[in-house]
Each structure stands twice: as C-alpha cells, then as structure tokens.
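User: quick one
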Amino acid sequence: MLRFSTWKFFAIVAMTIAAVLVVAPSMLSPSHYEELKSRLPSWLTPPTIVLGLDLQGGSHVTLEVDQADLISTQVKNLRDDVRRILREEKVAISGGIGTTTRGVQVRVADPADREKVLPKLRQLRNSFSGALLGGPSPLDVEASPDGLIRVTVTDAGITDKSRKAVEQSIEVIRRRVDALGTREPSIQRQGDDRVLVQVPGLQDPETLKEILGKTAKLEFRLVADPGQNPSEVEELDQVEQEGKLGVEKQVMVKGEDLTDAQPGFDQQRSGEPVVNFRFNIRGAQAFGEVTSKNVGRLFAIILDNKIISAPRILTPITGGSGQISGRFTVEQANNLAILLRAGALPAKLNIVEERTVGPGLGQDSIDAGKRAAYVGAGLVVVYMLVTYGIFGVFANLALFVHIAFIFAGLVLLGSTLTLPGIAGIVLTIGMAVDSNVLIYERIREENHAGRSILASLDAGFTRAFATIVDSNVTMFVAAAILYFLGSGPVRGFAVSLALGILTTIVTAVTMTRMMIAVWYHYARPTKLPI
Amino acid sequence: MKLLRLAPENTKFPFMRFRRVSYPFSALLSLIAVALFVFKGMNFGIDFAGGTVIELRAKSGAAEVGTLRTLGEGLQLGEIEVQAFGNPADATLRFGLQPGGDVAQQAAVERVRGAVGGYYDLRRVEVVGPRVSNELVQSGTLGVVLSIIAVLTYLWFRFEWQFAIGAVIATMHDLLLTVGFFSITQLEFNTTSIAAILTIVGYSLNETVVVLDRIRENMRKYKKLPTAQMVDMSINAVLPRTIMTATTVMLALFALVAFGGQVIRSFSVAMIWGIFVATYSSIFICSPMLIYLGLRNEDADKAAQKHETERKADASVAAREDITDEPVSAPPKSTPAPARKTSGKRAKTRPA
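Assistant: Done. Structure below.
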C-alpha cells in the first residue's frame, strides 16, 4: 500500500499538469486567447473546446434528394434518348412515346424494326451511368411479343443517380455557403441521398435556408409565338405576373454557361436592383446567334421553372453579358447572384430536418450549463467532505483532476461539447465519486472487521477495484452504443460520459491511493479517520 | 470532526424476506407501466413524432400565450401547443407534421415567422420531417435493445448465468418503469430521453454489479450459509455505499433540474426517477432472482473450488482473496458476524 513507484507518481503529476495546460486555453476569454495565440509560434496554436451548435448558436440542416423529382427528370431524359434513337433508326411507332412512373414505353409493330432498335436501347445503359461498371444494370429493357417495348430505370439506377446528385450537390452547397462568409461550415454526405449542412454562429439563419432550398436552374428560352406547334411549347408560371406564359421547350442557353453573376443596379431605367451576368464563350455564341435571328421577339429568363422576366430582344446581344431584372429587393438580388455563381443543384433538395439555435439562446444555455455544473460539483464536494473528512478532501482533489481530464479529452479528441454533454459531465461528477465511495466503504468495513489500518486500506483498494471495473464497463457499453446510434447533441453526451468513466479509473483509484499513501506515511494515524 | 453518516452501520435487514412482497408489487407496477404505454401513450417530442418546435422571446415585455394561441390557430397548422416557461418573455410553439411532405413543414415555419416575427425573436427552430423521425425511432429502439444484449453478454462471461439473467430482468424492470414514468408524467419523450434511458440502464447495471460482486465474493467465503442469508448479508454490506452513491448522483441531478435550463430538464427528471428505481431493483428484484433461478451456494461452491485449484497461479483479484486455506466451518447460521472475526484473524497473520 505504501510502496508507490516513483515513475507512477511522476506520471500522474505530469498527466495532471498536461491536462490543465491543454484545458487552460479554452478557459480564456476570446481576447486573451487571441493574445496567447499571437505570442506562440504558428505551429503551436492551442486547440480549444469545440462548442456544439446548441451552445454557440447556428444551423443544422439536413437536405434530401427529392426522389420524385429525380425520377421524373430521369424519365424525361430517357424519353428524349428514346426519341432520338427512333428518329436515327427511322423506326415508325404506333401511338406516341408513353411514360410510366419509372420509364417510357413505345409500341413498335414491325418485328424487324424491333430487332433494329432493341440493341441501341440496351446500349443506353452505358451512357445512363458510366460509373456503374459490372454492377446491377441501371436500366431494364423489355420487349413483349405484341411489340410493346418498355425501358425502365431500376432501383439501382435511381440510387446511383441520387448518390451522384449528392456528390455534386456538396460542391455546389459549399460554394453557396462560403459566399455567406460564415466561419467553419461543415458539409457532409449522409447515407445515399442526404447532405448535412452545419453552419455555426449564423446571425440570420433564414438566408441560409433561402440559398440551400433553391435548385437555381437558370434557363433562357424564347417565348412561343401564337402559331407555334403545341408539342414544342410549355406553359410556365410567372413570378411577376399572374397567369402562365407559353415558352419554347428548347433551351437557348443554360445557367451552366454563366461565368459570373454580380448584384447591381439598373443604370438606365429605375435604378432597381438587378443581377449582372457574363456568359462563357459557348454561352455567348449561342446567345448571340439566337438573339440575332429573333430580333423583336420576347425571351424568357427562367429560374427553377418559373419565369422571372420576359424582355424583348431589341438588338442582337453578342457581347456575352446581360442583366436579369425582376423587381428584386437588394437582398433577393444578392441571393440570386450567389446562387448563379455557385451553380445549379443537380437535383431538387428538400429540407428534411432543421435545427436552428439563435446566438442568444446558445449563450443562455452555456450559462445554465455552467451554473448547474458549479452547483452540482459544489454539492458533491461538500457532501464528500462532511462524510469522509480528510479522505473526502482526497476524493475532491481527485474529482478536480477528473474534470480536468474530461475537458482535456474533449479538447484533444476535437469532440464537440453540447448541452447534453454538459449534463453528462455533471452526471459523471456524481458517478466519479462512486469509485471513491466503493473504496472508502470497503476500507471501513475491513477496519470494523478488525483489520489494522494499513491492512484495511490495502484490502479496500484491491477488493473494490474489481467491482469498480465491472460496474464501469457496463456503463461504458451504454455510452458506446449511444455514441454510435445517437446524433449531434446526444453524441456529445455519450462522449463526456465515456471519457468520465475512463478517467475515473485513473483519478479515483490511482490518485486517491497515492494521496492516502502519502498521508499515511506522514500522519501515522492510530485510528481510521472515516 | 464528527462525520456524517446517512446509512446506518452493520444493518441486518432481511431483504430476501421481502421478495414475496416486492415481486408482486413490481410485477403490478410493470403491468401498469405497459398499460399506460398502450392506452395513455407517450408524449412523443418532434424527434419521434415529427413536427416543429419554435422557441420565441418577446422583443419587449412578456410573451402572451393567449394571443400566440389565437394567432397560431388562425394559421391552420392543425393542433398547436403554446407553452410559457422560465423567463416570462419566453414561449414555445409546437405543432405536428403538416400534410404535404417536407416542403410543407418549411412552409408552415414561414407562415409562423410571418405571423409572429414582428413581435418575437425566433430563438430556436427545430423541424423534423416524417422520414427522419421514423429513422430516429428505429435507431433509438435499436440502441436500447443492443445495449441490453451487449450487457447480457458481458455479464454472462463475467458471472454465472443466473447473475446475468437476474441483472437483465432488473434492467428490464427499470426500463418499463421509466417508460411508465414518461407516460404518466407526459414528459416530452425525445432523443435526449433515449440518452436518459440508456444512462439509467447503465446505472442500474452498475448498481446490480456492485451487489452481485459482493454476493459472488461471499458465496466463496461462506460456503454453507443458506443462500438467502448469504444474499442478505451481501446486500447489507454494500448498503452504505449504495445510499452514498445514490445521494451524490441525486445531488448532481437536482442541480441540473434547478439550473440546467429547459432543454435538459426532462432528461434530468427522468434520471432522478431512474436512479431511484435502479437502486430499488438491484436490491429487491435482481438479488431474489438468483434464488428463484436456483443459485445454490453449495453447488456453486464446488464449482468455484474446482475453478480455484485449476487456476491457483492466477493472480487475479478474486484469486488473491482465495480462501481455500480457511477452515471450512460455516459461521453460525443466525448471524454473519463471526465471519467478520474470521477475516480479522486472517488479517493479523498476514503481513501488510
């Protein structure tokens, strides 16, 4: 009991000092922290505790690829492909190209024609999804004897497309969020069809949702002439006015041909907010060509299938730049410019989960958590003191180091401290002393049974140890499962709880033992003080 | 300094005698809990039911719950719940899933913002769509089930099978009563509540293991003592510790309830109940179960003895407490006290 190897002693002292050093920067006020940072070399930037969104305020938004929209886009593309093949092969069909929920169907009466088209249709698989080599086919092509050919997108095809859509979306979303100028946004994929966006410390969470929720698919199309073939015309809603407007299905130029978009004010007319844009070479050429041929007609600027405005082509526009006006507010013009610069999302994304905490509430939660922690720790410390006297002092010292270890662990793991995480720490304060209680009660018991003080101390520590390990393993299992299944704040709770359990073993067992050994050496008590 | 002792010393409560009362009592409570869960149901928060919670703070003056309710009802959002809490300027609005999928949820938030945004700051907005809430239900259930399996496995390796079963039945009991508690108090049940439940499971096992550890130790020490008496003796021995630990954890939890703020209050309240139930079940449910499952002192003893001779060289803590060298005479059946003397004698002969 009394023998305590020197290296163990120094290891514990060193660990405690290290823990305090690691935690110290997090406890500084922001201005002091900056001062410290500026005095240290750049490779030694002290890490601090990362606060969760519930504590520092911010937005947590989960977006999901809209499956219905994704499928209908794929079906539309498929129909265009099938039409092209039929045209190239000069195959006659009876009736039009029909669409089903997951694909298209055509009736080709002539068996010879069928033989001609089927291989071509089957080849669509390769162009549909290049990356899916060897995997399950993204397309099903079936022909029934009566001449009906069905081309359907399979589940594998949909999953593949939505996975790709998520990948591309992450890039687009990153550009959009970066344009807001917030610090350290986190944008991650989640599963096959979701993107998790976490932006801390946002003053205006509305803007974030505004720019996340829009697909931002920009198109320039000609407004249809009254006499045009109805199959080439589509009726779209207008933003500025009531009612629909017929526009050509064919797209003149798409948003992806924009190189830049900036908010500005209309110089010539009202001075209202507008968005100025520039085309790339391909866009500029196409736009110049169409506008030259169609002077006098209207063209529509379409965003997400809604007509923003439909100005008249007065002269051919060949300069490769233009202006979008649509009675915007300054903010709307700003947001539209951000969206156009960042590019369109490859599919429509819906917000399936949103958790936004304002900065004021976050600070309130930090204060509440701190207060609870101080009061909780205070009560436990006093209780240990009045129950165990000098041994209570040892337990309390160990408790202090235990808390320092937990925070140091959080800093080193880069784990996020959430409000439930603070609850976890307060809870482990209550539980940490459990190990001390186990040991102390055992010591008392052995002493009452007639053992000498030293023998009781020794037996108390060794016998209680197995129990401490067993009981903490079960708690640790619960924490580990919470970590793997929980999300966000609950995960924070699991981490604090698990760290608390691990550090108990060191602090409550080894440290207390060391302190009691030293105390015994100097005090030489004749009676057990508990 | 006179030290405080909450737990009486050297108690000899015949806990096992209460099993004829505690079992029917606990069975009845568990049945009531199940009935409550089925007929009254839980107050599922938006994490599991889907829907929206908005926390508001009045830009000036106090929040007017009545006005908010009228405003909310005017928005046609289905059933809307308006609650004041803590600070008089604060209130929460809660409404369920809107028909029309994820897009409709966001539209509903916009309508609320439009209606109250002039007078209130929206301090917290949480929207959980139907698919996400279903997934949260699944992962929550999975978590609870997995943790029980994991712990059962651990205990099975570490103790005799009767111990593992006893511990799991005690844990299930605590789980049921906690669910019943959520149902009867209508505390909001959300992902933090799952955290509370798993922590209660952890704590319950912690309690149980401490008692079981002592039973196992005494089983080897007092070979001929009737099982019930030996179990009673073990529980009495760890009783001071049980009371002490429950008190410290309760102190920490009361601090959380009083000062921790709105978000974690339901967590803390549930935990307080859980600690109480876990302490009860480790004594009155788990330990008697060992007797019902036919844990026989002598049989177990023989096995232990065999085990010990096989692994004499083993330096595990249990083996250090190897008592095969002690006289195999059992202490008088009525009291465990002489046993203490025996260990005292031993201490003298053993160099410290």
